[in-house]
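Need a sequence for this fold. Nothing fancy.
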């Protein structure tokens, strides 16, 4: 059987809503468990019976390709039954509230609900409502507004740590590594969650972006802020680029996309400032030619983007498994 799955079970969390209070021990457990599931996913038969008979609901109120599909594949690989809810074809269009929607799935026997919403705090509000109802259902935040995207940061962490030690991915591997996060930090829930995980694991996090997209408040997370790209890239081991979230921006935050690319776009020449062997991450979706030159994304010696997507399934399996653990059939 899988090594991590026989390990002691120091997991006490009922929900995964934020990484703000995650400990190094919890990161270690998620990485170790995801490592075991990565081995399952590499087999010809990619399924284990672990969550047979459980119902997992993907409650997505905002567009998603990678995250929703990845949760669906993770649930299926664990043999759970999975329901994909789409806001546009549901009774929400008839005026039903989010709480009534989740209560409907609750009455149908759901065990875990995965929530994405364009407003910050919705997964927390759903979790509170379920707790008040006395329900044991777990909630996973799949991205809430500009707040957090914990599963993306966990899959980024897994991608980085497996690159550093494929057989034993562990948080300590990031100690002292310089990681530059570049782009639209202000609107990025990915950046907020990654700051929590990377700083706790001992990485040296440098944020870079225009002053309008990188306010001083980000210092409080323990990161170094730069409004010029070069000092953030100098000696970096990893560079994480973020999408310009045009749908969340007012009109006056950027002069133009061309100007943004000129000042902050990641190009091959600029990567020469980093440590030799630097690797690039991007959570997707990508605006090719804006946050980075298109060819970098397709260069397997540089880009970790497809590894990030692959890691997503193993990490989400790990979370579903850990959350269901206390209630195993
Ligand atoms: C991100 C998201 O939706 O927060 N993408 C993702 O989940 N992989 C980042 C983004 O939208 O830019």
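Here you go.
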């Amino acid at each position: 059987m899988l090594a991590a799955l026989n390990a002691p079970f120091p997991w006490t969390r009922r929900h995964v809503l934020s990484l703000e209070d995650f400990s190094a021990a919890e990161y270690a457990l998620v990485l170790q468990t995801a490592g075991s599931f990565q081995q399952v996913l590499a087999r010809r038969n990619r399924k284990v019976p672990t969550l047979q008979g459980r119902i997992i609901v993907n409650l997505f109120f905002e567009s998603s390709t990678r995250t929703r599909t990845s949760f669906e594949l993770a649930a299926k690989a664990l043999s759970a039954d999975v329901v994909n809810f789409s806001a546009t074809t549901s009774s929400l269009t008839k005026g039903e509230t989010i709480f009534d929607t989740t209560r409907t799935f609750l009455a149908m026997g759901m065990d875990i609900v995965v929530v994405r919403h364009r407003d910050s705090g919705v997964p927390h509000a759903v979790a509170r409502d379920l707790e008040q109802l006395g329900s044991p259902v777990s909630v996973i935040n799949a991205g809430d507004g500009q707040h957090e995207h914990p599963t993306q940061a966990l899959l980024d962490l897994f991608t980085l740590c497996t690159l550093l030690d494929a057989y034993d991915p562990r948080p300590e591997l990031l100690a002292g590594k310089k990681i530059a996060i570049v782009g639209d930090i202000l609107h990025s829930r990915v950046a907020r969650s990654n700051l929590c995980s990377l700083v706790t694991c001992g990485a040296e996090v440098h944020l870079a972006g225009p002053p309008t997209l990188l306010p001083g408040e980000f210092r409080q997370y323990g990161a170094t802020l730069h409004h010029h790209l070069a000092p953030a890239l100098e000696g970096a081991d990893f560079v994480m680029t973020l999408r310009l979230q045009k749908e969340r921006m007012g009109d006056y935050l950027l002069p133009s996309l061309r100007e943004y690319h000129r000042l902050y776009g990641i190009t091959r020449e600029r990567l020469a400032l980093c440590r030799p062997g630097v690797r690039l991450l991007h959570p997707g979706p990508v605006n090719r030619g804006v946050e980075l030159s298109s060819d970098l994304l397709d260069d397997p010696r540089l880009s970790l983007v497809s590894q990030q997507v692959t890691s997503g399934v193993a990490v989400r399996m790990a979370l579903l498994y850990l959350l269901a653990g206390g209630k195993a059939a």
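For context: The chain has two domains: 2-148+311-323, 150-309.
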